Amino acid sequence: MIFDVSSLFALFWVPYVIMVNFAVTRVIAALFLKSTLEVAAREKEKVANEAKKKKDKVAKRLKHIFKLADGSGDGCVELEDFRRMLDEPDV
C-alpha cells in the first residue's frame, strides 16, 4: 500500500499507528485503574464502618460500666464507688 501511494506516506502512517496503539493501551489501563480505585474506596469505607461499630460497642460497654459504678445515681463516680467496682469480677 505504501508503495502504491508514496514512500513518504510511511512518515505519517507509522506515527499514526503508534499513537493509536498508545491511546488504546492508555484507555484500557485507565479502565483497570478506575475499577481498582472504586474497589479501594469501598474497602476503605467498609473498614471505617467496622471501626465505628467497634468504637460504638466499646463506648456502650464503658457507659454501662460507669452506670453500674455510679451508686448514688448523680452521674458522678465517687472514690468509694470506683473502689467497689474494682473489686467486682465483671469489670
From TrEMBL:
Superkingdom of the source species: Eukaryota
Transmembrane residue ranges: 12-33
Swiss-Prot/TrEMBL keywords: Calcium, Coiled coil, Membrane, Transmembrane, Transmembrane helix
Coiled-coil intervals, chain numbering: 34-61
InterPro entries: EF-hand-dom_pair, EF_Hand_1_Ca_BS
Protein name: CPK4 protein
Organism (species): Symbiodinium necroappetens
